[in-house]
Amino acid sequence: MPVRPVLIYPHPMLKSVAAACEYVDDEIRALAVDLLETMRHYPRTVGLAAPQIGVPLRLIAVDVTGHPKATVCHGPMVIVNPEVVTGEGSEIGREGCLSLPSITADVRRAKRIFVKGFTLAGDEVSAETSGFEARAIQHEVDHLDGILILDRVASPAEVFPRRQK
Amino acid sequence: MHEFAITAIGQDRPGIVAGFTEVLLALGCNLADCSMSLLRNEFAMILLVESPQEVGADRLNTALEEPARRFDLVVTTREFEDVPGPEGDVPFVVSVYGKDRPGIVHAVSRALADMDVNITDLRSHLVGGDLYAMILDVAVPPALAPEEVAARLQAISRDLGVSLTFRSTEAAEL
Ligand SMILES: [Zn+2]
What we know:
The complex is a heterodimer.
Chain A: H1 26-41, E1 47-49, E2 59-62, E3 77-86, E4 90-96, E5 103-110, E6 112-118, E7 124-130, H2 131-144, E8 159-161
Antiparallel strand pairs in A: 1-2, 2-3, 3-6, 4-5, 5-8, 6-7
Chain B: E1 2-11, H1 16-26, E2 30-39, E3 42-51, H2 57-71, E4 74-79, E5 90-99, H3 104-114, E6 118-127, E7 131-140, H4 146-160, E8 163-168, E9 172-173
Antiparallel strand pairs in B: 1-3, 1-4, 2-3, 5-7, 5-8, 6-7
The site of zinc ion (ZN) has 4 residues of chain A, from α2.
């Protein structure tokens, strides 16, 4: 089942801390395929974390290819056990989340980050990125820690109801 | 169930929200959407409330008389029907700022209205003497080219001698 249903808050998995992947095996690789396909299935979707499709493991997919706000782009990425070290600068940007479909919110994120983790071949990988791609990675890594955009807003004026399409 | 939009405005002081929600809770009403704002010392709130079938406009108005008197507020209630808004509108934010002069809000809002662009939020402040700053959230209908809206607004800002930016706030899904 490649495209999997996306969990919607208040599903408890969205507020739980996901477990590290112990090995990168075929099961993880199959999960990565589903994560990417599910991400691509939804319009304007540039990232998805494994807990959002019901798997409480530390695995994220991000792809900002072709997005007008992307200034740095590493293409489609799947990162196993990602860790983010935030760098200089921060900026506010509006984010939507498939798991909180009725709102968008303005969230402050680090402008530059350093991310490390493992590839689907099990090799260590690290990258430096900034702007929109860095925002997407930070949003997805938050999902692995049970943190949603509503946990990040600084004031009520930063949450915007939206119409369901 | 009835749905009411309640507004209240008056001089700010602690306890207004608690006083109102206490009355609404006692009536068995459920608060849906609320927005509250403080401009200088004037406090205003809009509450969308769901009331039980037996609580109609008369009972609601009677019950709200007490907190309205106690806090010296102007209160209105209106029963409404939840109609879905238009779909497919694209969100943009407009910032307008410059030396304060009469007519900025009117010129910008008139142009938006003429293009059928809806204003969904607006905040403006007179800051630091004569710097006027206004931020608007607007919804551009799908049939209208955003470039056209941008060009029209830029022309107006040139006439007014103020700065204006128009940018997309469509959020990526993550
Ligand atoms: Zn999300």
